[in-house]
Specification:
- The chain is α+β, with helices and mostly antiparallel strands.
- The protein has three domains: 3-116 and 183-214, no CATH class; 123-179, no CATH class; 216-258, no CATH class.
- The protein is 47% helix and 16% strand.
- It has twelve helices and seven strands.
- Strands 3-4-5 form a three-stranded antiparallel sheet. Strands 1-2 form a two-stranded antiparallel sheet.
């Protein structure tokens, strides 16, 4: 089992079970689309928080906050979110850089996870979220750490216990890259029109927001159809899970409602 999918790894960076995300609703999709101008990490963190907050009667104390989730756990949740809502393959669509014709590529989530696994060899667990690495004791960063740190050195000063020595900056930086590799990969793409072979960067966090934004016209068409077919108002339709909304739209489109 890979570290990112291993419950023992999650417990080594988080002092509680990994939270579950509820299904994406139309309301969540609208909110995600309204954050297109926000910083990427901030927008993704708020997306995850919307799904965490949506659970009624959650008994956890203190409540889970997406800002305080370690980055590897946040990445894991994004993988599970894509797998559940959009399937096990990341589908990319962009214009060709040379001829501007639509180009497509796909990348399995399993391959993305396998390529971006935390590398734990040589790291000693001190307590959940804290590791001893080559003499430095450092904490795995959270989304809050990344958002509130103006530069890499400031981030390291937040994460290292004790004084950050100038000669240890490069070592700490290397360890952070090993413990928290970004969920991203390069994808080779060949244009079917002009034959250009290009390399696209796939960043899962950015891709998820892009897909939700790209689906907004579809969302409003589905809202319109359901409102006319079933006589429902906007609020109950936006409260439906995305998968349930698609199912009801399919029934309405085929006249299967009785």
């Amino acid at each position: 089992m890979s570290p990112r999918s291993d419950p023992a790894w999650h417990l080594s960076v988080l002092d509680r079970p990994v939270p579950m995300l509820l299904a994406v609703t139309g309301r969540v999709e609208v909110a995600a689309g309204s954050r297109r101008d926000d910083a990427l990490l901030g927008a993704v963190t708020r997306l995850v928080q919307d799904l965490l907050e949506a659970a009624p009667g959650r008994a956890e104390e203190p409540p889970v906050r997406a800002l305080d989730l370690p980055v590897p756990v946040l990445d894991y949740l994004l993988v599970q979110l894509h797998r559940r809502e959009f399937g096990p393959v990341v589908a990319l669509r962009r214009p060709c850089r040379r001829c501007q014709a639509p180009a497509e590529a796909s990348f399995p989530l399993d391959d993305l996870e396998a390529a971006r696994q935390p590398r734990l060899d040589g790291a000693e667990l001190v307590r959940p979220g804290v590791f001893r690495c080559d003499g430095s004791v450092l904490r795995v960063p959270t989304a809050r750490d990344l958002l509130e740190s103006p530069d890499e050195v400031s981030l390291m000063e937040r994460l290292v216990e004790g004084q950050l020595e100038p000669d240890s900056v490069a070592v700490v930086d290397a360890w952070l890259a090993r413990l928290c590799p970004r969920m991203a990969a390069d994808v080779a793409v060949e244009c079917a029109e002009c034959g250009l072979v290009d390399t696209w960067e796939l960043a899962l966090d950015e891709h998820l927001l892009l897909v939700l934004e790209r689906e907004r016209p579809l969302l409003w068409r589905e809202v319109d159809l359901l409102a006319r077919w079933y006589g429902w108002g906007l609020d109950p339709i936006l409260g439906l899970a995305r998968s349930d909304r698609h199912h009801l739209v399919a029934l309405a489109a085929t006249g299967s409602f009785s």
